[in-house]
Amino acid sequence: MYYLVLLLAGCLSLPCWASLTQLTKPELALMQSLYQQQDRALSGTELNKHLLENQFLLATARQLNPELLKRQSSVGFDNDYHVRRMMVTLLIHQFPALKSVPKVQLEAPFDAAALSGLLGLYPADGDYQPEQLSHWAQIKLLDTPKVTLAQLLTSQSMQNRFRLHQGDIGLLTHQLIEWRYYADLAAAATPLLAQQGLTLTRLNALATGELLRPPMLAYLGIKAQLHGERSPYLEALRANIPGSEIQRYYQRHRDDFRYQSQLSALAVTFDTMKEAKQFHKQLGKRGPLPALKAAKRRNEFATDEKAALHAITREHTQRWLAQLAFSSKPGKATSPVRTPQGRWAVVYAEQPQYAYYPKDSETVRYRALESLTTQHAAAAYQKRFKHWQQQHGVKL
């Protein structure tokens, strides 16, 4: 298939420098200890696979989803911000003595009015112009580490960026203190790491891999994406599933496409919930026809006023009540339900009849594609991961 050709071509183009491909015993021991503290029980083999899989996902992100390497959401903090926070946790966990590293109190290089003047109005679309970023990159906020106004601003969440445009000097100062603190912590940790055969660079790669694991698994279709969204990668897989495969899926799973096509049902509406509850009680005790007579009501599904139950389909003219009937449990009346018109409805249905969605219906196509896309994504993921292992001599 076309998408598999693209898949293999993509795998062959993964750069060798994209990720860590071998982990040292000190790195594994550190991460094992950290996960145990977080109540994440992984065996040594599971841990090795988990961390190397993270690096595979990081390499795949560089190839397929490079925007994700900067930040996961346009309204959130950038990845460097999150990685620094993860690294603080990791370093202090490994070296408790680092808790003594102080947070140096800093002052903002200018006041609120000057900050607002430098930034101007927050852009309506949230995007900055290249000229703005170039100008702000010339404004240095810290020497150690070197931090410019552009760096600090673009690292923040949308909410924080808006606050900075309003001249929030307290927020600016807090972020500078945190940036300086991380630099001091990293400097103090470097010789301690060296004693254990560890480096900040490799730990940073491990932290980045862990950070990007969830969004990349979602992007590749291994985990569900928010709001049922599909990445361009998944859309491409989905678009290349042939109709013949959908038909084979239908034949294998035909029972999944059976649906209630007709019911014998009644629906009664009332002005008040009290009346509806009384009818519901009588319906349960005496059955449909006696309950209707006692309430002096008629079945709103029926044209014959004497009929207790009436055969309906989902296309009945009383669409809202019909959908309520088809969503109810056969043989059991619904509790009083508020209708869109502000009345109270009680619906009862029994004797369901079943049919099958046609093999060429949109329902079949949609459900089949949902399942087949997941299957194709899982197969493609395993091919990618296996090729990455072979390419880099990774043994799990």
Question: Helix and strand layout, with pairings?
Answer:
Elements: H1 2-12, H2 25-37, H3 44-64, H4 79-94, H5 112-119, H6 130-136, E1 140-142, E2 147-148, H7 149-155, H8 158-165, H9 169-195, H10 200-219, H11 232-239, H12 243-252, E3 258-270, H13 273-286, H14 288-295, E4 310-312, H15 319-327, E5 337-338, E6 344-356, H16 362-392
Antiparallel strand pairs: 1-2, 3-4, 3-6, 5-6
Which tags fit this structure?
9% strand; alpha+beta; 16 helices; two-stranded antiparallel sheet; disordered N terminus; 396 residues; elongated
Which residues form runs of ≥5 with pLDDT under 50? 1-18
Number of helices: 16
Largest sheet data = 4 strands, antiparallel
Helix content: 55-70%
Shape descriptor: elongated
What class, by secondary structure content?
A: alpha+beta
How many strands? 6
List SSEs in N-to-C order: HHHHHHEEHHHHHHEHHEHEEH
Portion in beta strands: 5-15%
The whole-angstrom Rg is: 31 Å
Roughly how many Å apart are the termini?
Answer: 29 Å
Strand order of the largest sheet: 4-3-6-5
| Mean pLDDT over all positions | 91
Pfam families: Rotamase_2
InterPro entries: PPIase_dom_sf, PPIase_PpiC
Keywords: Isomerase
Domain PpiC: 244-356
